[in-house]
Amino acid sequence: MKKFPGSAKKLPPVAEESDDVGGVFGLPGTHLPEISPKATQNGRRRSVTSRQVSASSSRSRLPALGSELGDDQGHNHTATSLLAHLEACASAGTSPEEDLEGLQRLLKHCPGQAVNASEASFGLSPLAFAANSGSAMVAKLLLDEQADVNAVCKLGNTALHLAARGGHTQLTEVLVARGAALDGRNAEGWTPMIWAAMSGREGLIEVLLAAQAEVQLQDNEGRTALMWATRHGHVPAMRHFLALGGDLTLKDYSGQTVMHHACQQRAARKALVSTEAVNSRLLHSASAGDLPGVKQAIAAGATVNITDSEGASPLLWAAARSNNSMVGLLLSHGADPGREDSVPGGTQLLRHSTLRAHSSAIAEVLRNAMKANKLLLESVKEGDWTAASNALANGAFVEIAGKCERSPLMWAAIHGAADAVVELVKGRAALDRRDVHGWTALHWATNQGAAKALSALHHCGADVLTRTYDGDTPQHIAVKNNDDVMLIVLRCAGADMNVKDLQGHTPIQVAAIRGCAKALNTLVALQADAEVRDAGGRGVFSLAVANGQMA
């Protein structure tokens, strides 16, 4: 058996938007457009002032409005003056608050319609520029001059969207108090709450929640604020949404639940499986003997082995109430009858069920489940599929995991047992279940060179593009093992042979760096991009030479 992977060093990014929460104006990966110094000198900036700011000044080149505009001049400066000043501030990265008196004078002499004018590129109003800079004081000035609080730019963003995107809590309070639309959608379908979820600012989220902004709205991809907070690993923000009944079973339009969005965010995953809201619902229902409530909590993703303040688990409550149906339900979803609870005395669950409930039937159910789970783990590790089948028939939990969180399905992949893979999936084994290193059954099948098991997993719906926590796809794993057969199998399964790892390397680049000639030749035959270059402009041959692989 091949060597197991080492500890994950870092988490892979979430697609391409994990660090950039959609850009200032609502386009993924975009930023506030820079106003070039040349453009401002040749047109709009000159309309504000002709004075040259001292070159020795540490400030950016901004017009000093306070001393430039007299009464007569002011009337000649229309909407262009106000927009030019705010655009110049945005370009220079400075706050318009630096010359608040000059801005007040400019507003005094500008006609009323100037505060609602918009620039040509994105349709941004003066209030939008203020919102993007996070300036609550400038926003107040503009709103006092009848600026439209709900003015929309060409991409559908209002000032509240931009304030939420930037995490500007004080400004958000000002806009909300002035009647900003709480649930407006931009071109992506994002609401201010979704922007806030992306930025992960707790204070901002609390302001929007206090104003009764909707938290369950879905964007154009079907994603909720909870999903976006989860994608970006903002656990405190997630807790806010979960406490309000965030639906863990809801799927976006690509079929992904919140847990799918958390797959590459370790902290987010932990938060989801231990979320207080849904776990409290489970504990309350179990203690009250409410079987439908327990079912709903489990369906919402509750942790079945959670304990209350007194150390009692849902299974203990079910046993204490002699509720055989609830006991069976909890066991089938992974409740561990062998774990020790934290009730004073440290006695095991089995003993509690006997002492408290005096139910021999439940004690027998618990005893059998404990034996079956132990048998299942032992048998899958040894590759004894007859014994594993018997354990499942006797009530073992198909997702029971042992050391390093490896599930029976992962062990089937490790042993290359294609038939066992199919049977476990039929028994509700999760294809996307990960171990502590972020490896799925598909990664393990690839690592072990188990072509039949990999084909079975693919046939059952496993994702051939999934990454480990180190960022490796199955293709990268196959290359590192110099396994040409697995590369061919993966290509037949639809795997992208030009996908990049966390270092920005495609499989063929990894093959060159590691000197995996067989894998490299196979990738060339599979028409992988042999002309690809790294960030330094080096081709495949140069990478091989640089890493001592051409001796």
TrEMBL record:
InterPro entries found in the cross-reference section: Ankyrin_rpt (IPR002110), Ankyrin_rpt-contain_sf (IPR036770)
Compositional bias ranges of the Low complexity kind: 49-61
Keywords: ANK repeat, Repeat
ANK repeats mapped onto the chain: 122-154, 155-187, 188-220, 221-253, 310-342, 437-469, 470-502, 503-535
SUPFAM superfamilies: Ankyrin repeat
Region (Disordered): 1-76
Name of the protein this chain belongs to: Uncharacterized protein
